[in-house]
Specification:
The complex is a heterodimer of chains A (332) and B (301). Chain A has 332 residues and is of the alpha/beta class. Chain A is built from eleven helices and 16 strands. In chain A, the strands form three sheets. Chain A has an eight-stranded parallel barrel with strand order 1-2-3-4-5-6-7-15, surrounded by six helices. Chain A has a three-stranded antiparallel β-sheet with strand order 9-10-11, with no helix packed on it. In chain A, a hairpin with a 2-residue loop joins strand 12 and strand 13 (244-246). In chain A, helix 1 (13-21) packs parallel to helix 2 (47-59). Chain A is globular, with a radius of gyration of 19 Å. Chain B is built from nine helices and twelve strands. Chain B is globular. Chain B starts with 5 loop residues before the first strand and ends in a 20-residue tail after the last strand. Classes of the chains: A alpha/beta (332), B alpha/beta (301). Strand 12 (239-241) of chain A pairs antiparallel with strand 8 of chain B, so a sheet runs across the interface.
Chain lengths: 332, 301
């Protein structure tokens, strides 16, 4: 049984090196513009840093994946197509795309370029995955975080496309590619601008009730003086529904599949992805190291997650909380 | 002067009791609508009407002289979701609205034409052209798309009809988690179908009592009611051929009348804000936050 690849995030060259040095099999990154879904100030790569990162990774036998996973906007797709051309020129091992028009372009213009269907492509079932294979020759699909383990197994059983799943990181409670909450509040969403709850719309205000966290003026959360205040990610705020106030959609929490690794190996996932291109190199190093060790241990037949590894990942999680998310039915 | 716009009814996004659904469509089939979309788009657990019932209802509506379209479930997770989808597609007669690439795959394999629904993420001309090659006759842009972008894409694809979401709480997000069940501290598998108690969803307000979103099972909607009524006159020049009204629990006949009157070139008399299930919004169409309301000179809200 081949071990799933460990796919780690690189928001910067130091993060890329941290992932490579700590046991990633692949690193993924984006360009400095709205062609990728982590379009944040100070993040991502230009041609020079991308070349250097690819060289560094390749020298250590690590693959590089370029995420061009927003949707080209409007009548012309030139900026996104240019990003695909750039990826081919840079010589990355694959591009991660969500937009069917761009997948079509990439498969025609660069027939030798390996294509991965991004999680933003919302392929939650094997019919969707197989359509992307038939039309564009997609070789791997990243599944949205909506399926139970049994449903992931069902997808794998009905496709020859490699299946990649999320293993650790901030949890999107919504199906990826199918969430417009951010643009409803701010005018910018992951699909259109590569951002969710963008920082330029965030305002913290100290008031009589405590610390107010606002997004484009909308109160997303209010923290009492004894509470640590968090980033106002829309779906993780506290709201009032029919008289009860709380985390109506989701708590600040991270997905952690360590307890499920033996099962993920058994059902034959091709790759396990770590979220977090917006995180620091130190974070990437720690998470990569823990998951590398856990994967190697599971490969040798280890059935249980190491409590120390769980504790380390717990501390690196949003709100210091972890969940199995949709893999585990009761979460739904 | 009347406007060259079709008036159509989108799929029912809420979970209503069977009798109420049947009464609703009996009434709706008498309204000045060119097309009605039917079917369960949101949640596989909603089975007051089963797939076969929706197919039969579509046939009834076609017999009453309206075009019926069957809308497919937007988030497909299980093998039984796919089974129901195949049954819907193999209904023999009625056109499908595809709301997932999986549905597109099955339709394309059968050589069937379809409507590319708002959940397909068609954000540019190339992607729409590709879906056209696969069989799309008509498309509904993502609800977050601005009117200017719709115009550009429609102009580049004149052979594919453009239909826009023009009235109702906006379908903004889908999750595998049920937020209604979560509100009642129930598991989704034992949700007790509490959605039945909320025929327009449950409003989610900020802690400053601003109506912000609405929970509708696994779907999150806007609390605000998106309205393009005041924009109708400009839509044909933007390439729009049809406007979609989304079903709501009350006052829908009056909403349809207001749109029909505006399309006929009359000034709609209805006090729109009174007919809406939430505050009026239209920001998306103007390239702004969806929650924004841009007043037009002759705004009647």
């Amino acid at each position: 049984m081949p071990l799933p690849e460990l796919v780690c995030p690189a928001g910067s060259l130091p993060s890329l090196k941290a992932a490579v040095d700590n046991g990633a099999d692949c690193v993924y990154f984006g360009l400095k513009n709205d062609t990728n879904a982590r379009n944040f100030a100070g993040l991502n790569f230009d041609a020079k840093s991308a070349s250097e990162g690819i060289r560094y990774a390749r020298a250590k036998g690590v693959k590089t994946l370029l995420a061009i996973n927003t949707f080209a906007q409007g009548a012309e797709s030139a900026r996104w197509q240019h990003a695909i051309d750039e990826a081919a020129e840079l010589g990355v091992d694959a591009v991660i795309l969500a937009d069917f028009g761009l997948l079509d372009y990439a498969s025609r213009r660069h027939p030798d370029l390996r294509l991965h269907l991004s999680v933003q492509g919302s392929a939650s079932n094997y019919e969707a995955v197989n359509l992307a294979q038939q039309l564009f020759g997609v070789q791997r699909a990243v599944l949205p975080r909506v399926l139970t383990l049994a449903q992931v197994e069902q997808v794998i059983a009905n496709t020859t496309v490699e299946i990649e799943v999320f293993g650790f990181g901030s949890l999107c409670v919504m199906a990826e590619g199918r969430c417009l909450l951010s643009s409803y509040a701010t005018g910018q969403s992951p699909n259109t601008h590569g951002v969710c709850s963008p920082a330029r719309f965030v305002r913290w205000e100290e008031g009589t009730h405590g610390m107010d966290a606002r997004l484009n003026g909308i109160l997303i959360d209010r923290f009492s003086p004894d509470e640590p205040s968090g980033y106002p990610t829309l779906c993780k705020g506290r709201f009032e529904v029919e008289g009860s106030t709380g985390y109506a959609l989701e708590e600040p929490t991270s997905l952690n599949v360590l307890p499920l690794l033996p099962e993920l190996l058994r059902i034959g996932v091709a790759a396990i992805k770590v979220e977090g291109r917006q995180r620091s190199p130190a974070y990437v190093a720690q998470v990569t190291r823990v998951l590398r060790q856990a994967l190697d241990k599971a490969a040798q037949g280890g059935r249980h997650a190491d409590p120390l590894a769980m504790a380390t990942l717990g501390k690196l999680s949003e709100g210091q909380q972890v969940t199995l998310g949709a893999y585990n039915r009761p979460w739904k | 002067m009347s406007l060259p716009l079709q008036l159509v009814l989108g799929p029912l996004l809420y979970f209503w009791p069977r009798d109420q659904v049947m009464n609703f469509y009996a009434e709706a089939s008498t309204w000045p609508l060119q097309r009605l979309y039917l079917g369960e788009v949101v949640c596989s657990r909603r089975q007051q009407l089963r797939t076969q019932d929706w197919i039969a209802l579509a046939a009834d509506i076609a017999a009453a002289g309206k075009q019926a379209v069957l809308s497919s479930q937007a988030l497909l997770e299980s093998e039984s979701d796919l089974k129901r989808l195949r049954k819907l597609i193999d209904n023999g007669d009625t056109l499908l609205e595809a709301n997932d690439a999986g549905a597109v795959h099955l339709l394309q394999q059968r050589g069937l034409p379809f409507v590319a629904g708002p959940h397909l993420n068609i954000y540019n001309s190339d992607t729409l052209r590709l879906y056209g090659r696969l069989g799309a006759q008509r498309w509904v842009p993502p609800v977050e798309m601005s009117g200017d972008t719709v115009r550009l894409i429609a102009a580049a694809n004149p052979d594919i009809e453009t239909e826009v979401f023009a009235w109702g709480r906006l379908p903004l997000a889908l999750s595998s988690r049920c937020f209604t069940a979560r509100h009642y501290q129930l598991n989704k598998d034992d949700c007790q179908f509490r959605c039945l108690e909320h025929p327009d969803g449950m409003t989610l307000a900020t802690r400053e009592a601003q109506d912000f979103l609405a929970i509708n099972g696994i779907q999150t909607m806007s609390a605000g009611c998106h309205s393009l009524l005041d924009e109708l006159a400009a839509l044909p020049a933007q390439g729009v051929r049809a406007v979609r009204i989304s079903p709501q629990h009350q006052h829908l006949a009056a909403v349809v009348q207001a749109f029909a009157a505006a399309i006929a070139g009359q000034t709609p008399l209805a006090d729109l804000a009174r007919l809406a299930p939430g505050p009026l919004v239209n920001g998306y169409w103007h390239g702004e936050a969806g929650i924004a309301l841009k007043e037009t000179a002759h705004g009647c809200a």
